[in-house]
Design brief:
Blueprint lengths: L1 E2 L6 E2 L6 E4 L5 E4 L6 H10 L1 E3 L12 E3 H5 L4 E6 L6 H13 L9 E4 L2 H16 L18 E6 L4 E7 L3 H4 L15 E7 L6 H13 L2 E2 L2 E2 L3 E6 L10 H5 L8 H17 L7 H5 L3 E5 L22 H11 L11
Parallel strand pairs: 7-10, 7-11, 11-14, 14-15
Antiparallel strand pairs: 1-2, 3-4, 5-6, 8-9, 9-10, 12-13
Helix pairs in contact: 3-4
The structure holds guanosine-5'-triphosphate (GTP), magnesium ion (MG) and zinc ion.
Protein name: AAA+ ATPase domain-containing protein
InterPro entries: P-loop_NTPase (IPR027417)
């Protein structure tokens, strides 16, 4: 059974109903009966499967990349945080770091789920930020949500499709908006806190809205969570932020993850930001991290001295370890 990340329909599928995307963006049946060898593999990489969910409006019909369904149940990662907390910059920096081989030290390799879409994501977010050094726009309010990017992550033995959802912070506070449809499908929570903010209210509301919608046993969630305190560059002179932010990334070390989590927890607590710690109280497995998506603040929409992300992959690696995408590590999480 496959879980559609767009409409949450669960369905079984068969290999003989594949589609290909035309240059005009339409989908037409793909017949592979007489195709074999490398050509077949090539066509399969670009093939799509139609989501068979019954729809009220045929215009809502959608297709999923074959590579997405081929590897079993995908991991849906949702970025959660109030408006302007830095979700979009963080994700772009993460994907950029992955593109630059940042997962290799952990024994992970990646491929795009959908080559075209991934290229579109890189061209619209990663390149502008990391190469052209411009600040990215606020996320627009859209009526539907689709993953902004999706990757196939392989740990040497298993491949998992990982889909990333990043919607506007305001919409996350709603429990009914169409764009939040992916929330019940979340398998890994990435909570984003703005280290530079003076008020904790907004982030807290999006956290609560999302936490409320997810299933609990004994009052707590089994969905692993990572809390990323982003824009840590803005508070880099405060101990112990500096120590963590400029530490060289290491292989995954559960003891270090635990130490950093404790430090972040204490830091937020000291700042009176207990309300931000709700994911830690609610989720059975949760790690906390100091990160910076850009390394410094933008001036007039530009990062003049370049963009230097710090520790952006740590929360993701931790989520991978807690969700089993990355196996063979001892228990991670508080
Ligand atoms: N100093 C600093 N500023 C950052 C960092 N990441 C993002 N920003 C700034 O924070 C602002 C908001 O960033 P976004 O990534 O658009 O925030 P968002 O959470 O996606 O916002 P919405 O899409 O409105 O929900 C932008 O002006 C960025 O330049 C960071 O690591 N350090
Ligand atoms: Mg955004
Ligand atoms: Zn669907």
């Amino acid at each position: 059974m496959i879980l559609c990340p767009i409409c949450l329909h669960e369905f079984a599928w068969s290999e003989d109903e594949l589609y290909e995307r035309t240059p005009a963006g339409q989908y037409q049946p793909l017949h592979l009966d007489s195709v074999s060898g490398p050509r077949r593999e090539d066509l399969l990489r670009a093939a799509h499967v139609r989501c068979p969910a019954p729809l009220s409006d045929p215009g809502l019909e959608h297709h999923l990349p074959y590579t997405y369904v081929r590897h079993g149940r995908p991991l849906v990662i949702g970025l959660v945080g109030g408006p302007e907390t830095g979700k979009t910059h963080l994700l772009a920096s993460m994907i950029g770091a992955i593109e630059q081989g940042g997962l290799r030290p952990y024994g992970l390799t990646t491929d795009a789920v959908d080559i075209e879409r991934h290229a579109e994501y890189v061209n619209s977010y990663v390149r502008p930020l990391l190469v052209e050094r411009v600040a990215l726009n606020r996320t627009t309010h859209r009526a539907t949500a689709e993953p902004v990017d999706a990757l196939l992550v392989n740990d040497g033995q298993h491949t998992t499709a990982v889909a990333f959802f990043d919607i506007a912070g305001e919409l996350l506070r709603s429990a009914t908006h169409e764009a939040t449809r992916f929330v019940p499908a979340i398998g890994g929570l990435l909570f984003v806190i703005d280290a530079a903010t003076k008020s904790a209210r907004m982030g807290d509301e999006s956290f609560r809205a999302v936490l409320d919608r997810l299933p609990k046993t004994g009052g707590r969630l089994d969905i692993p969570a990572a809390i990323a305190v982003t824009k840590s560059d803005a508070v880099r002179f405060q101990a112990p932020v500096d120590t963590w932010l400029y530490a060289e990334p290491d292989r995954l070390d559960p003891a270090a993850v635990l130490r950093e989590s404790r430090d972040v927890y204490a830091y937020l607590h000291r700042r009176g930001a207990q309300a931000w710690l709700s994911p830690y109280d609610k989720c059975r497995k949760c790690t906390l991290h100091f990160v910076s998506a850009t390394g410094a603040a933008a001036t007039e929409g530009r990062y003049r001295r370049g963009v230097r992300p710090r520790r952006v992959l740590e929360p993701l690696i931790s989520l991978f370890a807690m969700t089993g995408v990355l196996r063979g590590y001892p228990e991670v999480g508080l």
